[in-house]
Design a protein that fits this description.
The chain is an alpha+beta fold and 453 residues long. It has two domains: 102 residues, Rieske Iron-sulfur Protein (3-layer Sandwich), CATH 2.102.10.10; 282 residues, Naphthalene 1,2-dioxygenase Alpha Subunit, Chain A, domain 1. The chain is built from eleven helices and 21 strands. The strands form five sheets. Strands 12, 13, 14, 15, 16, 17, 18, 19 and 21 form a nine-stranded antiparallel beta sheet that branches. The chain has a four-stranded antiparallel beta sheet with strand order 5-4-3-6, with no helix packed on it. A three-stranded antiparallel beta sheet has the order 2-11-10, with no helix packed on it. Strand 7 and strand 8 form a beta hairpin. It is globular and about 75 Å long. It binds FE2/S2 (inorganic) cluster and fe (iii) ion. Fe (iii) ion binds next to loops.
Length: 453
């Protein structure tokens, strides 16, 4: 697969040649591959569906997506969280047609079957005269997902084969926990800002996912924001942090076992001073200064990490470099993806700080914000490239820093199997596609991958 001028029919389109760093463009555009992804990747993965702060009280619910599957997430009378397929078992109608609310039961608007918020079928019109009292209600409840709660985040899978959530997450748990704990290191320290931002983009879901796995290379795309001084720090130029102090390194951490990846700042020692990145919002700055020292105290050695963002395979990105958000890509078609965004604020912050953060987040991110528009344009345009017959003569190129990584400080508690390197590289993307290829039944090149890194 190496080299220019490869012939398209020589490629198995399911095969991502991680060892060569080259990827066939058809995986972004072909309907058949998309259908297989829904079955073999989404159908067998743990998927984020929401946050416990969206349903604080018994009876609360909200609707979400587990890949292409619509779900209702409920908190029942026993305080248990259920993730139910939002598809009536009678004839397929969604049983819940509101975004959120509080209800003990859901009555299907088509023929009136009624389901408790635990999923049980409790109401059956014409039960005795129509079904002779013989329809087994136990069998016809809403389909229930396996559910895992992780520091406030809610995850689900409809697969019986998928390993436990903890096993799927593996060493990435450290990173995700660090994100879900919020700025002061409280166990369950975040809450959602009311309302989930949703919009549609005309590109394949993997463009967003791979970008968030660790594309520090695309700096140039967001240059305008830096130039006009709208970046987080209010400073102009690329360096938000004081690079001269050299007290931390920015690391790419990729976990090949699960396909996850994160970007972190790792301080050389615990207890380092707060470095302001909220110059433009003094009241927020003060809150974060406090939170920084509380967190250092609480976490000790592990407080050396500052989590900047990452991806939980396959379709969830979190971003925490001052803006706590989770992005979910909902695949609708090879070239159509819904983007869902949860914005978070620290639970413990005063209302004025929460308000300031909310305004900042909307100005900065989302389809009307300053940064996200750049990427919407990038990915929709890359999609056109993936659909071009002529362009498919050449694969996509993911060879940046392949074979000459700048290996970082070994930190065993980052995870034993983790690939850790420093600076701009495409290791995390290669790891992402390696995992994708494995799940799609492609040839596994684990040894080759390792050699290439
Ligand atoms: Fe729901 Fe018939 S489709 S009751
Ligand atoms: Fe970007």
């Amino acid at each position: 697969l190496k080299g220019q001028g490869m012939k398209r029919d020589s490629i198995d389109p399911r095969l991502v040649a991680a060892g060569s760093g080259l990827i066939d463009r058809s995986i972004f555009a072909d309907q058949e591959i998309f259908e297989q992804e829904m079955r073999d990747v989404y159908g067998k993965s743990w998927l984020f569906v929401g946050h416990t702060s969206q349903i604080p009280d018994k009876g609360d619910y909200f609707v979400s997506q587990a890949g292409r599957d619509a779900v209702v997430v409920t908190r029942d009378a026993d305080d248990r969280i259920n993730v139910l397929l939002n598809v009536c078992t009678h004839r397929g109608m969604p049983v819940c047609r509101y975004d959120k609310g509080n209800a003990k039961r859901f009555t299907c608007p088509y023929h009136g079957w009624t389901f408790a918020n635990t999923g049980d079928l409790t109401g059956l019109p014409l039960s005795s005269e129509g079904y002779g009292g013989k329809l087994d209600r136990k069998q016809w409840g809403l389909i229930k997902a396996r559910v895992a709660i992780f520091h406030g985040s809610i995850w689900a899978t409809f697969s019986d084969e998928a390993p436990s959530f903890d096993d799927s997450l593996g060493d990435m748990a450290l990173m995700l926990r660090e994100f879900m704990q919020g700025p002061d290191g409280e166990d369950d320290g975040l809450e959602t800002i009311e309302g989930i931002l949703k919009y549609e983009i005309h590109s394949n879901w993997k463009f967003g996912a791979e970008n968030n796995a660790g594309d520090l290379y695309h700096d140039v795309s967001h240059n305008s924001v830096q130039r006009v001084g709208l970046a987080l720090s209010g400073l102009r130029g690329r360096h938000v942090w004081d690079a001269d102090k050299q007290t931390f390194k920015i690391l790419n951490v990729a976990y090949p076992a699960g396909g996850h990846a994160a970007r972190v700042s790792l301080y050389d020692k615990a207890g380092r001073d707060y470095q302001s990145q909220w110059a433009m919002l003094p009241e927020v700055d003060e809150y974060f200064r406090d939170a920084h020292y509380k967190r250092q105290e609480r976490l000790g050695e592990q407080g050396r990490i500052l989590n900047r963002g990452g991806i939980v395979f396959p379709n969830i990105a979190y971003n925490s470099a001052g803006r706590w958000q989770i992005t979910m890509w909902v695949p609708r078609a090879p070239n159509r993806t819904e983007v869902w965004k949860w914005y978070f604020v620290p639970k413990s912050a005063p209302q004025a700080v929460k308000d300031a953060l909310r305004h900042y987040l909307l100005r900065y991110g989302g389809p009307t914000g300053m940064v996200e528009q750049d990427d919407i344009e990038n990915w929709a345009s890359a999609q056109i490239g993936a659909e071009s017959e002529a362009a498919r003569r050449l694969p996509m190129n993911y060879t940046l820093h392949m074979g000459h990584a700048q290996w970082a400080w070994p930190e065993p508690w980052l995870g034993e199997g983790a690939y850790v390197d420093e600076g701009v590289s495409e290791h995390a993307q290669r790891v992402f596609y390696q995992r994708w290829a494995e799940m799609m039944g492609g040839v596994v090149h684990a040894r080759e991958l390792e050699a290439s890194l």
